[in-house]
Specification:
This protein is mainly β. About 0% of the residues lie in helices and about 70% in strands. The protein has no helices and 6 strands.
């Protein structure tokens, strides 16, 4: 795998569900891996109407080196600094695809963002 492709850094978070005193679910996100080298590339986008509001949704492909334990219930956070201002994008992982040759060189994460943030 060409290391030059992996010029972005993402954090991977895993979803943790706990119960409150009344039995309701509390969803929180816990850092699973920090500053993972990645290639973040938008693949497509669309606009839709939800509840009378117009929302945009972007489908993104994120490629990382293979690592055990990455599952589609996680999410990826891509933080960028542009003109000294930091912004973050939360990507919901929809599917995870191993590399086609060995299955242990890279993982392609098919993600979307815009409709919700995890």
């Amino acid at each position: 795998m060409d290391a030059g492709r992996l010029r972005h850094r993402i954090d991977l978070e895993e979803r943790v569900v706990t119960r409150d005193t009344e039995g309701g679910e509390i969803v929180s996100w816990v850092l699973w891996a920090a500053a993972v080298p990645a290639e973040v590339a938008p693949a497509s986008g669309k606009e839709m109407m939800v509840g009378g509001a117009e929302l945009g949704q972007v489908t993104t492909r994120i490629v990382i080196r293979w690592r055990p334990g990455v599952v589609p219930t996680m999410r990826a956070i891509h933080r960028q600094t542009i003109f000294e201002e930091e912004s973050s994008t939360i990507y919901n992982i929809v599917a995870q695809l191993p590399d086609p040759e060995t299955g242990r060189v890279s993982i392609t994460l098919l993600c979307n963002t815009g409709a919700n943030n995890g």
